Amino acid sequence: MQIARVALDVPLPQLFDYRAEGLNEAHLGCRVLVPFGRRQRVAILMALDQHSEIEPARLKSVMALLDEAPLLDSGLLQLLTFCSQYYQYPLGATLFTALPGRLRQTEALREAMPQQVCLTPAGQAALAALPAQARLQRQLFQALQQGGDWQVLVSMGASAPALLKHWLTQGWLEPVRGVAPELSPTDGPTLSPDQGHAVAALRELGAETALLFGITGSGKTEVYLQRLAEVLATGQQGLVLVPEINLTPQLLQRFRQRFPTARIACLHSEVSDAERAREWLACQAGERDLILGTRLAVFTPLPRLGLIVVDEEHDASYKQQEGLRYSARDVAVMRGRQAGVQVLLGSATPSLESWHNAQQARYRLLSLGQRAVAGAQLPEVVLLDTRRAPLRDGLSEALLRVLRQQLQRGEQSLLFLNRRGYAPVLFCDACGWQASCRRCSARLVWHRGERRLVCHHCGWGQAVPQHCPDCGNQDLKPVGSGTQRLEAALAEALPEARLLRVDRDSMRRKGSWQAAQQQIVAGEADILIGTQMLAKGHDFPNLTLVAVVGADGSLYSADYRASERLFAQLVQVAGRAGRADKPGRVLVQTAFPDHPLYVALTRHDYPAFAAQLLAERAQCLFPPLAYQAILRAEARTLEQALQWLQQARQLMLPEQAADTVEVFEPVPALMLRVNGRERAQLMLQSTTRAALQQRLRAVTPQLYGLPTPGVSWTLEVDPLDV
Ligand SMILES: Nc1ncnc2c1ncn2[C@@H]1O[C@H](COP(=O)(O)OP(=O)(O)OP(=O)(O)O)[C@@H](O)[C@H]1O
Ligand SMILES: [Zn+2]
């Protein structure tokens, strides 16, 4: 009896056995339909076997084979199997994460058909002697002599679809791998010496990983374009990953302009399900040359892959925060290694992980030290000491003065504050009451426009109370500033300025961000007020001043990654100033002007700052000098969560004292309550990745066996937020 071992999209770590006749090795990676519980489900065929642990009487049968050719080729299966093991996430759920939503269901079958087919030699032989009365078959055979469009062929007769599918399964037809059009990229600018050196080095490097460290505006994108042109010219596919917020129409435009004849797939969160499935299949059929996408695009099937680029490789959005908690950057590096293609990571502020790898010569380091546009300089960074300057609504008089000068000169300014809403705290100074969320251990943020208090963690909200619910005091005070408050204060102080606020609240409607960008480029706004949405990757030529306010809060955070992030953020936002011919300036309002982070910022010295952070991490044994995994549990009460983690810890403890994996005590999470559930976590840590992986592999399967009344748990490898 033949057994099919299949992967299902369920939160269980094993594969499932079914009886299956008529399947063979060529079907591995195809989808099949199987009964599961009371339902039918789509599964992926992973292995064929003659034996099963399940008694024959209890084995159910595969109901149908859904694909003619594997949906996941052996390379992707290998990559996803690795991800499942590395991230300790069930294989089935991992595979289904990689599939576009449509292809996880049976309905998508029509779309899974090839676009173009042609006869194989076997097909030529088998169909040459068709009897005269088989009219439709003869017509199809005739039409197929030149190869044919699937949609046209299936419409030739009522039974044409069935016939063609049958011929496909017989191996008489095969999908036509799209023939790449003549690729003639338009010319880019003459490369700067740094850029030229980087491109030459990458050409020599072969299938390794390189870190392109280039200051903002140094022309990293130009280096990617150059390398992609070379790769595409040899008929290979290029995969470019960017953070969600950077995948703008402008960026796509830049790629289209350079590669006018290339077939470009654009995969991001606003692409519809149907579109995503279509593009995915087109990539798989080799009918796309260039793939521009966000995190999830790292799993796109690419039979002719020749280069992977990860732009802004330090960006936190490459990390998936639910389900399969993968880092798309790390998966890209792994994919490159498995597929034997080069991976190019780029950033002005590399993650310490990548920087460390480059220092250790695991990655090849390439640097761009100058701005690309002739004459463009890095902006001067000036610290505004607020210790002696009173702030009104978060703004100092010195800052207002500079903003006024900017207005007179007709140049744009950007005010950066990474906190939306009006004020982060609503406070009663009679009794000390603060508005806080009922379901989270978080304060409610006052959104003045909507007259509401909103929790930024769970979304719960309420109307702003007229008086203090504890003591009745009517004089409730907003404490601290969000973007809305800055906007209101500026409207009062500089009534003649045209203000534009850019944050997740003001840009909620689809298309509004795009409209705002056009407005900025057209010079229809004088002062931009924004969160990190405004910080990244944009080129606004008339923007000459960036002012940073309210950044001090992240300097002394409990999260050891906070200062790495703040630095990256400030370099990014500072990099928006003076990108064209006018020089730019950056002002930072701070009460800690001697802090090493700000000092490094004024000197534009990422390497010095990185060296200092790495020294600190080495001292405390934090990543990248150690490897971590976090086991999180949540329940109605903290007690339950901690208890479950205690049991888990017993399983996880090392058997020998010499073991290098540390398993810490469970502790309450920094944000204890979210959405009415209480959370706790325990950390595993080791100085070697292999030891940590080995321990996780040994114990994770047992976690599924622990009793979990009311407790839900997740395991995260290489967590970014601890
Ligand atoms: N060799 C060159 N000669 C002239 N202009 C160039 C050259 N390379 C890039 N540029 C221009 O310089 C500007 C910045 O380049 P690019 O966007 O590639 O930089 P980047 O390093 O990716 O920037 P950032 O990381 O700050 O977003 C762009 O307007 C680009 O067209
Ligand atoms: Zn909440």
Textual characterization of the structure:
With 722 residues, the protein is α/β, with parallel strands linked by helices. It has six domains: 3-109, PriA, 3(prime) DNA-binding domain (GIY-YIG endonuclease); 116-175, no CATH class; 193-368, 3-Layer(aba) Sandwich (Rossmann fold), CATH 3.40.50; 380-423 and 480-616, 3-Layer(aba) Sandwich (Rossmann fold); 426-474, no CATH class; 627-717, Alpha-Beta Plaits (2-Layer Sandwich), CATH 3.30.70. The strands form eight sheets. It has a seven-stranded parallel β-sheet with strand order 11-12-10-13-14-9-15, sandwiched between helices. The chain starts with a strand and ends in a 5-residue tail after the last strand. The structure holds adenosine-5'-triphosphate and zinc ion. It is an enzyme of class 5 (isomerase). This is Replication restart protein PriA. Zn(2+) 1 binds at residues 428, 431, 468, 471. One of its GO terms (cellular component) is primosome complex.
Order of strands across the widest beta sheet? 11-12-10-13-14-9-15
Radius of gyration over C-alpha positions, nearest whole angstrom:
29 Å
The count of DSSP E runs of length 2 or more, i.e. the number of strands, is 33
Largest sheet: 7 strands, parallel
Cofactor: Zn(2+)
Binding site for Zn(2+) 2: 437, 440, 455, 458
InterPro entries: DEAD/DEAH_box_helicase_dom (IPR011545), Helicase_ATP-bd (IPR014001), Helicase_C-like (IPR001650), P-loop_NTPase (IPR027417), PriA (IPR005259), PriA_3primeBD (IPR041222), PriA_3primeBD_sf (IPR042115), PriA_C (IPR041236)
GO cellular component, one term: primosome complex
